[in-house]
Design brief:
alpha/beta; binds cytidine-5'-triphosphate; single chain; metal-binding; two-stranded antiparallel ribbon; EC 6.3.2.5; 14 strands; binds calcium ion
Amino acid sequence: ALGGKSSGGLTGRHMLVTAGPTHEPIDPVRYIANRSSGRQGYAIAGALAALGARVTLVSGPVALPTPPGVDRVDVETAREMANAVAAALPADGAVMVAAVADWHAPEAGSKIKKGDGAPQLQLIENPDILKMLGNSPKRPRLLVGFAAETDDVIAHATEKRARKNADWIVANDVSGDVMGGNANTVHIVTETGVESWERLDKREVARRLADRIADAL
Ligand code: CTP
Ligand code: CA
């Protein structure tokens, strides 16, 4: 029959996904950013839509096509991403894959000139969008964060899960060739423990995660 768990396990659900980097302008021609291709987040948005969910994808600047069946909202900065996420609520579940820049620079309306010497930027902390959702009265029932780490992957992910009030943290070790690549080795940190998956194509990580989300919702 149609609408069974395998084909449409998320029919009628609204899922929110963030993906890509954010760009924080230093002046009209320069920015600060985290490294992110957006591939893992876009694959997750596509996999959730393939299971029948209505998907809102809040995306930083990336060079990727919008997956079929996904509503995409383009943003540039972390503050814009936070506003777009808030505007997309309510959602049954959220998967925060974006590599959000942790700081922004003060507004600079005109181009900083090299001849004036190296700028001493007073960086200002950005809103933590996952933490904001975790503590919101509109908190999605299932809240999934990501953590890209180079050391003590599980320990950092466990700490982030608690600090941000997330249900699961999908942790990956980025000391290898994950960035911009097609494969990912992830560990799912939940209330009950850690599940480690073998190295998989990012699309396969997305399909498995979407199945797990459908089961949880
Ligand atoms: N995140 C977010 N908003 C931020 C920073 C992070 O929503 N301003 C989300 C990311 O999308 C990810 C999770 O929080 O799902 C973990 O991001 P990460 O950068 O690993 O965590 P931080 O708390 O910023 O810690 P770190 O010092 O390791 O960068
Ligand atoms: Ca960060």
